[in-house]
Each structure stands twice: as C-alpha cells, then as structure tokens.
Amino acid sequence: MENDDIHYHRGGVVGPSSQDALGVNGLISSSAEWREGELRATPTRGSREGELRTPPRHLIIPGHQRMDSSASEVSLEEGRDLHHDGGDLSMGIASSSSSGSSLENQLVTGSTMKKEFKIKVSPMRMHHYGSDSDLGERPLVCEICDTQVGLDLDGNEFVPCECAFPICRKCYEYIREHDGGNCPQCKERYKRMAGSPLMPWDMEDETASDGEDEDGFQQTPLLPRYGGNSLEGPPSVKLLKNESSGVHDSQVVVRVNAEDIEDPDELEKNYGMGSIVWTPALQRINSPGDEYAKVQGDEKAKSLSRKVPIKWRLLNPYRALVVVRFAVMLLFLTWRVRTPNNSAYWLWLTSVVCEIWFAVSWLFDQAQKWSPITRETYLDRLELKYDHMGEASELAGVDVFVSTADPEKEPPLVTANVILSVLAADYPTDKIACYLSDDGGALLTYEALHETSCFARHWVPFCKKFEIEPRAPEMYFGEKGDYLKGQIKQEFVKERRSMKRLYEEFKVRINALVAKAQNRPRDGWTMADGSPWPGNKRSDHESMIQVLLQPDGNFPDVQMNKLPWLVYVSREKRPKHNHNKKAGAMNALVRASGVITNAPYILNLDCDHYVNYAKAFKEAMCFMMDPIKGPGICYVQFPQRFDGIDTNDRYSNHNTVFYDINMKGLDSIQGPVYVGTGCCFRRQALYGYEPPAKARDALRDEEKQTGFFSWCCGPRKSKGANGKKGKKGDEDSVSGHELTDMQDLKPLKVNYEDLQKRFGKCGDFVSSTLETGLAPSADFSEPDRVLRNAIEVTAIDYEKGSMWGKDIGWIYGSITEDIVTGFVMHSRGWRSVYAMTKRPAFKGTAPINMADRLHQVLRWGLGSVEIFFSRHNPLWYGYRKGNRGLKGAQRLAYINTTVYPFTSIPLVVYCMLPALCLFFNQFVTPEISSTALVYFFVFFASIAATAIMEMRWSNVTFTDYWRNEQFWVIGGTSSHLAAVWQGLLKVIFRVDSKFTLTQKDLGDADDEFAELYVFRWTWLIVPPIAIVLVNLLGIAIGITRELAKTVPSWGDLFGKLAFSGWVLIHLYPFAKGLMGRRNRIPPYVWLVLGAMLIGLGIGYTTFFSVSGIADKSPSSATDPAAGGAYAGSAYANGLYYGP
C-alpha cells in the first residue's frame, strides 16, 4: 500500500477484561495479561496484515451482517469520503446495537501527518452500581420480541393491560390488528391506548387517554405508605374512605368523579393576578383564558435581564471622597516634591519616585470603579419565551469544555465530579454537550471518564427528580446541614441513601484505577488487541476522540431518559511542535465541537470548577438570548468562588476585592475581563466575527446611563450611525426591537477560499462557522465522516497557515491566554457581562499552600508581562475608526492589568526604606512644621474614608479587604517581582519558563486544611524573607543606637519603627506560613536567615568604618513632631497606595 494512502482500520469486538487490567470495560490492558478465549482484532496466521477475525455467531446481533474480512482494511486516496463495505460490526453487548447515526462506542484515533484514521469498537460498560433495586426496577423488556418496552405518550412506562404483561407498542399494535386484540397473559381484550388506531370493538365514547376508563372517572392508584402505616395522596385528589375503619393494609381507595375535584385554574382566577399562585400559573403555557394569554404576551416582550446600579446614597458619597482623595494626593505629592531632604537626598528621591508610581497605579485602578453595577435576570421570562412546558425547548445549545492535563495533579475524581455536575444541570438534555479535553492523553483519565459515564446514568435522574443542589456528588454528600430541607417526596430518603452507596462504589472504582495506574508497565499500556495505548507518550501521540454518551444514542439513564453528549478529546501532539498549552487545547475543542454538535454557545470550565447552581446555564442565556441586548454580548463571566479555604483566608484566595469590586466596575464600561473559567462564550465571537452595528449602538446607549457624565451631567442623547444626535423618527436611531432582525452576524471575510485560509482546510468545519442556528452542522447519517472531520481538526498541523491563535479562538502568545482573548474580543466592539447569581454558579478549589499560591500568582503575573511586550499591548492595540473598538476606560483597565507586576519594583524598594532609615539614622523627609502634619493626616484620612465607603457599597468585609491588602504586599515582593524578571529574560534572551500545574484535590477527610501548614521550599520566598530580616535588623540597630545615646531622640525613632512595623504587619501571613503548624521555622530557612545576617553585618560594619557617617543625624532628629509625621506618611503610603 502506498505511503500517500490513508489506512482505515476498524478494530474487532473485545471481550471482558482480566482482573489485572487497568480498566473494567474490556478495552485496555497491560501487555500479556489477557485470558484465553477473548476476542481480539489480531491477524490470524497466514492472513493479510490487519485482517480481522469474524466474531462468533453467538455474539452477532440478529438483523446485522457479519463484518466482511475484505472490509477490515480499506485504502483511501486523499480527498475521498471515508466509507467501508459490509454490515455494522456488532458490539459485545447483547441487548443493544449501535444505530446508524450513533457515534458511541468508537474510540477514534488518527493523524494527518501519518495519514492514518483508525476506529476501535469500545464496548460501553452497562453494569449497574449496586443492586437492581437501588433506584427502582430495571427497564421492562417485551416478552415477545425481547426489546425494551419504552414509554407511552405521557412519558410513563408503556403498560396497556392491568395484568402488567410486558409488551412493546409494536407488538401491542400487531396483536390488536391481526390477533384479536387479547392480552397473551390474561386473555382480556386490550383497551385502546393514546395514539393507537381505532379498532371496531373500541367503544365510540372512549377518550383514548392513558389512565382513564370508559366512564370518564379518574383512577387513583394506591399510593406508597410512608412510615409503614400512613397513606397520603396528592393534595389535589380527594380520597374517600371509611373514617371508622382506620388504615389497614387492605385500605380501599374509592374513585372520585373528576367533576367533583376542584380545578386549580379556577382557584387562580378567584385569587387574581396578584396572588402568590399566579406565578406558578405562568409556567402552564397552555392554560385557557384571554387574560392569561395577554399577560403571557407581555412577559415574552420584556427583557430577560436588567442592570441594577448601586444605590446612590452609597455610591455618590464614595465618588465624592474619591475626588477629595485625588485632590489631597496632588497636594501631598506637590509638597513632597518641593521639600527635599538635602541631608539624605537619595532616600528622599527614592521615596518620592515610589510614591508617584503608587499614585499613578491607584489612578489606573480607580478608573474602573467609578460606576459599579449589578445585574439581575428573569428566569421565568426565559422559560416562558424559549422553554415552554410540554413543548420542544427552543433554548440554544451549549457546548461545555472541561480541560485537564495531568491526572496526578488533577485527580480523576475531581474531574468526574465536574462532569457529573454538568450532565445533571437544569437544562434541556439534548442542548448540552460536555467535552473533556485530556491534554496529557492519559489512560487513567480515559478510563475514569468511562466510569463517570456509567455512574451518570444513575446520578442525573436522581438530581433532576429531587432538584438537589449542588449536583457534584462529592460536594452534595459532604455538605453539613439539613439535607431534607425543601424535600417533599416521600421516597427521597430511601433513594438518597441508595445513591450515596452507589457513589461510594463509584469512588472505590476510581480509586482502584488510580492505584493500578501507579504500576505502569515498562513498555506502556496496551489495548485489548495488543496495540499500544496511543497516549503512552504524553507529548507524542495521535488524536483520540470517543463519544461516550449521546442523547439519541443507545445508553439512556436508568429511567430510560436521554443523557447529554459526553465526548472525550485528546488532540494530537508531536515533539518539537509548539502546543500552545491550554489555549491550543481549547482551540482544538472549538473545532472538534464545531463538526459534532456546533452549539452557538461555549461554556469553559476548569477541571476543578463544578456547577454549583443547576440553573447557571439558563442564567447565562438570560443575557445571551435577550432579544434587545443579547446580540452584542461576546461572553458572560461568572465570579469564581472557592471551597476548602481556611476560615481566615490567610493568602486571600477568595480574591473578594477583585470579584466584588473591580469586576462590578468593569461591567459598567465594556464588561469584565475573562478570567479563564466559568465563562459562557458566543461561538461567533470566538470565530472573529464582529457584533451587529445596531447591537453596538444599543449597548453604547446603555453604557452612557452609568458613565462619568451621567453622574455629573445627566444622561446624553444617543447618536445615530451618521454620528449626529438621534431624533424622533430618524431611520438611524436605535430601536431595541429592531435587533431581533440582526441575528445574522457579518463575517470579516465572505470568500470561501479566504475562509479556508482563516479557519483551516476542513470543508465541513469551515461550513459550520457560517451557521448561526440551533441545529448542529454534522450529518449523523455518516458517523464515520463526522469522526474523521473531528480527527482532522484536532491534528497537530491543522492550524498551520490559518488564523487560529492569532485572530480567532483563544489567542496565543501569553501564559494567561484568558486575558488576551477577552481583550481581543472587546477591541472588536463586543461587550461582556458580569453575572453574579444569588447562589454561586460555579465553585472550585484554590491552593491554600503558600508555595502553590505564590506560583499561581507568578503565572498570572508572567502572563501580564508577556502581554505587555507583545503586539496585543493595550497601549497600542485595538484602535479602530469611529467608536467601534475598545473604550477609553476599558483600555485603562487593560493597561492596569498588564503593568501591575511592574509595581513590584517600587514596592520592594519602599519596603526596604524604613530599614535603611534605621541603618543610616536618616529621614526621607526634612524637618517639618505643624503644616506638614496636616498634609499627612488629611491624606491618611481621605484614604481611610475611601476604603470604608468602598467596603460599604460592595459589601466586602473588613477582613477580606485587609487580607487582600496584605497579600498585595506578599505577592508584590515575591511573585510579581519574579514575573518581571522572567518576562524580561523571555523577551530579551528567549528563555522560556516552565510551570507545573497547581495541585487540585478534594481535601483530606481527617484534616481539611492540612496543606495550609505544609512548608515547601521555593525561591520565591527569598525576597520577602530578606525584607522581614532587614526590617527586624534595622529595628534592633535603631533601638540599640538610641539606648547608647546620652540624650535619646525617641520621637525620631518612633516614626522609623512605625514604618518598619507597618511593613512587618503586612508580611505577617507570610511569616505564619514559614512557621507551619507547630510555629517552627524549618532548618533550611534558618540557614538562609543566618547567611543574610552575616552578610548584612559585614556589609554594615565595612560601610560605616569607611564612610564614617554613623553618628550623623538629620536636623530633625530631636523633633518629636517629625517622628509622628513620618509615621503618618509611612502609614498612608505603606497601606493605601495598593489595590
């Protein structure tokens, strides 16, 4: 076969695995561990290479042909459609078969570089966790044809006869039409079920509805007893019984005429529209009555969300104080510049430069906080408009991307909980597709995902039946509190107990996989047919894709309901190729999902961020599908919330100041920045499309209502497209209702060849980029073609010559791809939305260990430095003609995002200044008068007042605010300084930095915060240790010097000690982290401290012995007022120039 041909291999049926196999599905095994008698896709002696054995007759599903040996390997020329001759290959499951349009049960691998495409049948594990009675009975099977009975038109199990003889609808219809219509078991004639054709013997007045008899009486079945003795019925049904007879096992329930039952709709009419029962009535779309229809129409026409400004009584005083602080700051800096200290000019100059830098940094930070807003959504309007009860849902599809790379750092159980929470979300099942990106190609992750798909068949219906929160099982069963709160269904306790046992079994199976994965064979893992697992080399493997669940597939949940899509994706990797880390993996998922489901919206989640609020997807749709403002929104960002953080939040992991203050401010400008997870994108925005012009105008008018001029000058009139002020009746004026006709976005380039240069060579994927509807682009009648397209778009060389990572998708060039990706979207004129739900939409884990936290901040800081030195620097990128690009205030926010690591340089210097003052017995300020004291304390008062008002309108607690301030100093003197250094090395000398993934875990049951007290050495702690040590040494020298003097100047010393003490207070959490649980400093830390002390001592003695300035004192040394003023300056500058 020539090298230019593409080889198509289809693996054979595999049998059950041995106990030594890593997996339990019979697909994967270590080499030479399979038992005799198993079926393998291996060549027989004398056969051609690659020829497959035909499965035994007893495993062939009736109605399917055997696989023709001549079709086991097909040579295809490039450019031809993928196909194979012969019938479908049977699966190793006797009860189900793959439909012609199903993509399940096929592990697809391939590489365009090697021109290979392989499909291996992967039997889905159909085992049930626990016993069959854990969650009710198993699905009924027809006694005649051995197929599943299925459901009737009302969604209940199809049981046409009172004797409950299992029969499917096809056999039922056949018996009624050709065999007299009698039940094979009880010989009674079948009654006509809803949807069945009328037979001659059917009564003319029969209503043809399930559960009703010929007299029109409602049959009330016996209800389950609660507690063994009580019998309760639905509150809307009257149960008639003999009061004197008590309750016995033979309790008789009498049928009640339906006309005697109170109609709930009549009760609602009596109460009226303003009653509490009217809101539930809105959910019944088909309720009769003109009055209801009118209200329904009004609700549909309204917006799905609204902007809620911060209360003016809180915001206006805050703004006034900001203006006062700015004026006082200018006066203070003017005074500092005009009053140099000539006796210590170098100290004065250094301090003034640092203070000016801090002032500019504060201005950049304050610009985004001027007009903070919040938003609220109307889920009832969304459901009324797009999700009618009893009708097909019109909600848009959502592709959920979950990314993982290393199962050792990111445990499979954590990832499994995230996936289970996605699959169980309160959203139409056929509208969700969950894609797991395994960037490490790990067999452990693949096997764990198989286990997760099996457990999902139990977990998803349980969550939806009882509407539990959260829907990640580990978090749900681990919650402390009353889990019965709000539960009214009697079977909940029993089923919850059973489900918890099933989850514990699931955890044991995952733990077994993890334990087995520790003993990796020398030659790597092998598959059941003897071929090696493609991902044995994590940086050198072909693409791997498998659809594990599909809504119209062969594996519904235990109640025979559909399950969402679940797809495993591992993109191709090769040595000496730049894989672009997470950004490259996300772009591969965008393309793979585009040829499979192609949902118009994409939700990005880290593998440790689970869905904490089941309606989170609908919350995002309230913004995205809003008919007025939705078309101009590129993404909806949810705040990050975290579990497992210590009560004191020592290292400010909650980051409350950023998420509850800064992000609210950005939402009033052009929207929040993208923070890497918990974000719902518009697919067309990721493809580089621009928003509709009228959508931009509508959003611009909305932004004017909360901008700077709206506060001091009132709202401004909108301008039309020609730039003139809009008037009544102008064609160019913006009308919100006209935006419903602007759903089709205009692409940047419409030529098909240009689109291929932009999006790549896959024709089917390029076509999908032009689709904006709800229907997927893939043609599932040709599953092989769909899978081949998915392999092609995840190939290592697919992006070559295209605009991926440059102008579309996740943008490359920075380790913080999230910031630059959101920035590029905003520069095109899109806006984003910040969605703060009452219940946190998503929750994740954060590193509570000091070393892990510092490395996380280092990674963020280095990403900002990379953006600063790239072509995407907001100082010069994103300028467009007119008002179509980045807004001024938004540009300032992005500039602040890229330059904040450079603040670490003046911060480190400023933290050293008090120690230098104590060493040299000098001041950074000259002799000052009482007028100077006024400057210091007024400046400090304005800073304190601004901080207090900021905490008031944002509801941020003082503890959170103070912890954020402390960690700003800790991170600034360690991680941010290292980020600047590494960024310069990368830009100048092309030295790339390597990062390890942050450890993600569910926590230790014995000690939830054990990681908090573990000390791990990292060179990032050296600068803060030096600052602490130098300040402590300076305090000791200063006190010793004053004690040695005949007339000590304690006022001067007080100011210097206050400055040093303030620096040390900020670094207190850092010192606690060094001492660990037992408050003991590790020995190697003592070695570093000792070396620094010796070095400082030698340097200090040598310097003063040569210069002879040890006894010099400034002219203000005996002035106690100067000491107090210096303390005030230190307090102000050291605390509130920060974030």
UniProtKB/TrEMBL annotation:
Q: What is catalysed by this protein?
A: [(1->4)-beta-D-glucosyl](n) + UDP-alpha-D-glucose = [(1->4)-beta-D-glucosyl](n+1) + UDP + H(+)
Enumerate the GO terms in the molecular function aspect: cellulose synthase (UDP-forming) activity; zinc ion binding
| TM spans (from-to) | 899-920, 932-949, 969-989, 1017-1041, 1053-1071, 1083-1106
One Pfam family from the record: zf-UDP
Which ranges are annotated Basic and acidic residues under compositional bias?
77-87, 728-738
Give the positions the UniProt entry annotates as the active site. D439, D818
Q: Which Gene3D superfamilies match?
A: Spore Coat Polysaccharide Biosynthesis Protein SpsA, Chain A, Zinc/RING finger domain, C3HC4 (zinc finger)
Compositional bias per record (Basic residues), positions renumbered to this chain: 718-727
EC numbers:
2.4.1.12
**Cofactor(s) named in the record:** Mn(2+); Zn(2+)
Q: What is this protein called?
A: Cellulose synthase
This chain's source organism reads Klebsormidium nitens
